[in-house]
Amino acid sequence: MSTFTIAIHGGAGTILKEDMTPELEKAYMDALNDALEAGYGVLQRGGSAVNAVKAACILLEDNVLFNAGRGSVFTKQGLQEMDAAIMDGANLDAGAVAGVRNVRNPIALAIEVMQHSNHVFLSGQGANDFALQQGIKLEADDYFYSQFRYDQWKAVKDTDDYVMDHQHESKDELIRDKKFGTVGAVACDSNGNIAAATSTGGMTNKKWGRIGDSPLIGAGTYANNATCAISCTGHGELFIRSVAAYDVSCLMEYKGLSLQDAMDIVVRDKLVKIGGEGGMIGVDAKGNFAMPFNSAGMYRGAKSSMGRFEVLIYK
Predict the structure, then answer these.
(1) Known binder of ligand: residue 300?
(2) Considering 3, 5, 75, 182, which one is annotated as catalytic?
(3) 236: which of 24, 177, 213, 261 fits an S-S bond (Cβ 3.0–4.6 Å)?
(4) CATH tag for 5-314 (out of 3.40.50.720, 3.50.50.60, 3.60.20.30, 3.30.70.120)
(5) Torsion, CA 154, CA 155, CA 159, CA 163, rounded to 10
(6) For 99-118, what is each residue's pLDDT tens digit?
(7) Prediction pTM value
(8) How far is CA 286 from CA 229, 259, 283, in A?
(9) Would the annotation count 211 as a binding residue?
């Protein structure tokens, strides 16, 4: 039995300890721990990498702290439009959705697309129709409402600005962290198969059905047993332009680089040169993992059957 590993992220950006209350920090750490343990438990019981990343992402989507699922930000129209993708490194199967509404767990819908639609990518109303057909759990608009997301949107809704500064109300103080609030997971199971999953609510005040890198296979999400499984978080437009997730795989496949070296080149060099702020998590089929970022912080964690365990926020 080979090493099994899972890594997760809950977004990257200007996340500074001095801006965080102890209560909020504990809430984030607890949420990351819970998601990590959910995914790791699947692997420990001999489950697949696909089911492990699904389990971890669902817990993150259900937590209002993260900009995915329940905690998704408001669009220009004052709605939530969510994107998600998953990829199975064993066979290169993939499923993605964009611009879906009222879907409690977009990652669960992405898996249905991968396994039961004969397509890779569904969007908008068509994706919602497919969700109904597959019995995916839907929620009313008020399930996705959170006061700090609403206040954030209200401040810019009459402008053409989009916002990545998330606001958190904690007792009497307002804490701001410029955060790219995607969630994601990557895993290597005991059979040496790997998978990646990413889910997001996108940008506050986004217009025209904007789609970021998260649901785009090769940009924000990618998995191939021969190289790596990657989930990205950052300024989506720059990750799309650099095809960030697939670029890591290419560096490993064509230049023979290790997972860590390939991810470092993309995150700390290639993305930086074009102003791409954020980070990514990755695993390979040997159970190695890496979690580089070029921002001030990234909500992240990893756990391996070799005894490695970490949950971190800051640099």
Answers:
(1) no
(2) 182
(3) 213
(4) 3.60.20.30
(5) -100
(6) 999 999 999 999 999 999 99
(7) 0.94
(8) 11, 10, 8
(9) yes
